[in-house]
Specification:
single chain, 158 residues, nine-stranded antiparallel beta sheet, mainly beta
Length: 158
């Protein structure tokens, strides 16, 4: 996937098309998942980053080679994933956007409040918050308690 497509999606622009997602990962399959903050599976983001209510994720999963006893395969998320707030099974707003590599959050991610205001923006390394993160309250003001430098999901400075 072109870096420009990812950055456009993460900064609030249009999501990549299904064709673009699959072109970047031809061995993968399109996948939609519905989770709540409490039911996240796989590699969840720290709780303060996630929105409340039902969230639908959309992206590509690449099956792992090992077959389970029931014939199914485990799979890892790969490439750009867009997550949306749901109301009555309909997507109403973006919740987060970023990239997965081998099932882990990597690189730049953006999270939004339900009203479309940014919640947080920063970088993940192997699904851990790293580097500088900017965080905002629902009223748009900077959340100084959460904004700052992070290492391994822990705030280490301003």
């Amino acid at each position: 996937m072109a870096c420009a497509t990812l950055m456009t999606a993460c900064r609030g622009g249009a999501a990549p098309s299904d064709e673009e997602l699959l072109a970047a990962h031809p061995d993968g399959v399109l996948f939609d998942s519905i989770e709540t903050r409490e039911s996240q599976v796989g590699d969840p983001a720290p709780g303060f980053l996630r929105g409340d209510g039902k969230i639908e994720g959309h992206g590509v999963e690449v099956p792992l080679p090992d077959t389970r006893p029931d014939g199914s395969h485990l799979a890892h998320k790969w490439g750009v994933w867009m997550n949306y707030y749901l109301e009555n099974s309909a997507r109403v707003a973006k919740e987060s956007a970023g990239e997965f590599r081998d099932g882990h959050r990597e690189g730049h991610w953006t999270f939004w409040h339900r009203d479309g205001q940014k919640r947080a923006e920063g970088t993940f390394t192997h699904s851990r918050m790293t580097g500088h993160w900017d965080c905002w309250r629902e009223d748009g003001s900077v959340d100084t308690a959460l904004s700052g430098d992070y290492q391994d999901d822990q705030r280490v400075g301003n």
